Amino acid sequence: MLSAAKMILGNCDDIDAYGLDTYKEPKVIFDLIKSKIEENPTDEYVLFSDILGGSVHSKLIELCNHTNVYVVSNMTLAMILEMKLATEENTAKILQHTIESSKKGTLIMNHTKALNTINQGLEDDELW
Description:
Blueprint: H1 2-9, H2 20-23, H3 26-39, E1 45-48, H4 55-60, E2 69-72, H5 77-85, H6 91-104, H7 111-120, H8 124-127
Helix pairs in contact: 5-6
């Protein structure tokens, strides 16, 4: 996910990625992020996870005992991009908008719908 964001945005120095493929256990990821929070307690942290109720998500929720931590499940690249490009300063508002956009951007396309869309001649930017 981070490599895709970097391809699109370029500089993503303020984004860190932690995966079980590297860190093997949710507790290791939890400890790394907890250390960052303790080192920079005035920063806000938005933690994205892949699966609601998954092992990493469940462990990260424990970090919400800090008032500056948000945990968001069902991460998509669009969510990451929207958060990074947001101009709003209120993190809670940005997250709410990001989640609403994600819901609207989740579509089922089949043969009939695809043909209708093509026949309507929609521009790419209208689809996205």
